[in-house]
Amino acid sequence: MRAGGLSLCSGEPLPGAQAPRGMEEDELQEKEFFSWEEFSAFFDAWCERRKVLFFVKNSVPLSKCKWATAPPRPDVVEALKYSSVRLVCKDFRGSNWARAWSPYPCCGCCASIVLKMSPKKDRLIVTECQLAHNHALCPIEFAYYFKKGYLMANSCLPVRTTNKISKQFVGGPDVRRLLSYCKSRDHGVLDVLTVLDRLFASDPNAKVKLVFMEDKVIVQTIFFLSSRMMVLSRRFPLMLFFDRMVGLNEEFDLYSVLCVDGAGRGREVAYCLTQRETPDLLRFTLASLVQSVPEVKLQVRCITLGVEIAHLEAVKELLPNARVQICRSQVLETLFSKAQELGAAEDERIWPLLCRLAAAKSPAAYQQAAQEMKAILPQRFVRYFQRHWQPRSEMWVQFWAFETARNVNACELLKQHQRRLLAALSPSPTVAQCMLDLLAMQVGSEAHELDEGELATHYRAICKPEPAGLIEEELGFARHGRYRFQETAEGYLLHDGLSEFAMDQALTRCSCSIYSSSLLPCRHLFATRLRTGLALFDPGLLHRNQAALLGAC
Ligand SMILES: [Zn+2]
Ligand SMILES: [Zn+2]
Q1: In angstroms, what is the span from residue 133 Cα to ligand 1's centroid?
Q2: Which of 55, 123, 162, 319 fits a 20 to 30 Å CA distance from 289?
């Protein structure tokens, strides 16, 4: 019997502890597995029974093999993952130095197992196994170190790498390093990394935070924003919106942060994709946003949240100057369906009453509507309301939770965003596909916003025909694939592939010859406005050329 007593846990070599080849070896030798997953499950259970700890010492991933003859089929590569794997005991320590100085012929433990792909290239076979340890096996140590599923997780990426990188911002070089470690397509990790690699290739300043599940190579959460989104959040930080997309997928959720651009439209400033039911996403997303664009921390004055967002206290801490509001129309819908659920009668007075409650323009009007509720709604609902919504009335009743000076309708803005997401995202996409769709949507939304005909009509309404014609022509060049943008201390730089043009912070002046000679808005101003969310129709663009305006003499 093997010495397994607690007193022998030191791991000191025990010469002579080598057991003769026995049943254990017979059980394993020549055993066949049709997938790495099958082997991992078998080996986890086997190690658990024997309280032995093995780790992968060397391995040759099938995806990185070169073949002189016909290569194995892709599904086989996917299933088997390795052409050979050598697992050794945790007490291996087989360095040359240790061997040279050790009083024993082999200072570390020599227990090991070798698995190889069969010559037919369709299964893994245990080709060597040496299971005698030169030390005691300690159940306490085993319980401490053993991680079920580790072999399987490690077959995609080294788990220690994902643990280390998790919750940190990653850059292009990190993603490329992870890609070079990546041995299989498990859990879509490789696909996600490939999308990130593309993102960084076109936008090296994008901000990405990856969270992996602990000890697993599964992406739990991805936070990301492109450098365009960063520009938008710097320019329009006053009001933010945070909501979850409804009905995206069974597996994961999409959260977006929006701002309001110069034309009053909701624009995305950050995305967070996460496994469903990941807690406290508001805190994680806002913290990541503030880390990416630190200026916004003190600038945000108001944040409107979707009705189901929890842990609102995170806002106080991360955006100390921001008032919290809850999307009023979502609160109304919630109240109405809760009333049905709690047994409200079919009563056509209910909806108008709830609307009056939410839209109350004075505390007295709110109090009155709240009183009326008691008469037509069941007691249970009134109690629910008093517990959940009364204490937060300042966040959703119109009198307190007024929107803004700029008359933005928060509910409409969130609804529009939801519709745009539904139109842009593939039906039940993978995480990687969803990221691709979202990034494409950014580019597409620009095109959508540039309604040249409508803009030209606006300019014709205030300009004389000739300058209006020039402006229309320039609008036609605003969308240009080769433009590259850069923020500077003075404003913006635009490269069109040949030359570079400088514009002021307010985007009303440009260094190009078109602007200098006509003092009318040029293609560069339009393109940069499009990019940064400023309105393309802006009478301010004509301030320096009053003669172009209708009614000027
Ligand atoms: Zn050992
Ligand atoms: Zn210009």
Answers
A1: 4
A2: 162
